[in-house]
Amino acid sequence: MKKNISVLFFTLIVSFFLTELLFRIFYPINLQSWYAELLDPEKSFVTLKKNYHHKIDRWNYKYYASYTLGEYRNRITQNTKNDNNVLILGDSFTFGLYLKDKDTYINKLQNKFNNFNLINSSTPGWGLEDYYLFTKNFCKEINPKKIIIILNNGDMGRIRKKVIISENKNISLKEKYKSYKFLVENFMTISFLRNNAYKIWNYNKKHTNDDLKDTTIYFDQNITKEIVKDSKKLFLKLKKEADNCGASLNVINLGWSDFRNHEKILNNPNQLFFKNEKNFFKNNQIGFFDNTQFLRNVHKNKEQFIIKNEGHPNELGADEIFNSLEIHFNKILI
Prior knowledge:
Layout (H helix, E strand, L loop, with lengths): L1 H25 L9 E5 L4 E4 L3 E4 L10 E4 L15 E5 L2 H4 L9 H8 L4 E4 L7 H15 L3 E6 L9 H7 L5 H4 L1 H9 L1 H16 L17 H24 L3 E6 L15 H8 L3 H4 L3 E4 L5 H5 L14 H18 L2
Parallel strand pairs: 5-6, 5-7, 7-8, 8-9
Antiparallel strand pairs: 1-2, 3-4
Helix pairs in contact: 3-13, 4-9, 7-8, 9-10
């Protein structure tokens, strides 16, 4: 009996390592799970990695994206031959999460405005404080003529990033079990099994795209007012840093969701800011453009424009955003 168990165990171990060898030769999987790095632990400030290539072997067969990151911690989707730099800062929408290079709206804008070099350093999870910290640390190195911040619905609320993280109960298995993290990040066989289990789990999830249409984080009204005050200070700091490196600062409210008449407007820092501070940008020589009205098709039927069971813009959604942002870029890049 013991001999049979030993033989079985030996066979499984050999089979596992043979499978691992086959993966590494014929179907190499990127074991690096994240393409950003922590630069400031105290502020939870992360940026894209520098000069790095990342392949996603996860999600579903349609969304196998490959990200090429450049010297300015930026996503590169094509080669540009000029140094007329324009720095683009945003969150996962502007980064183009899960989309192939050609389908991202920044790549489409680069095609349209090919006399500029659009440096897209947007990073998933970013908010207003991250835009300020990146500008402070890298603006002079990049030397852009213009900075364009594409502001998403939750960007001001992410000022309270540490609070949001601490209140998040969904701790990943990798954070919970170090042995699991070691196996996933070192063995392609385990990573392959995990990725396919993820696909099956995601396919069978009970929720629909209706649950993913509004991912804005809401706050108590008093906290919302505090965030608005902090956001004003950060915008002024951003303007100062932009001036220091000789760049004009422009902000576009993406308007992916239309909250202008939303019942929770007093719990939404972004929208409360726009409601109460209508002249803030003009008074402080910051270019401001509201994109909300140009995404009416998205507001009417958002499910058509997002990745199924995920929530980020799909190819059609990215195309809608491109068409809307082109209007503002024509005014900014003159």
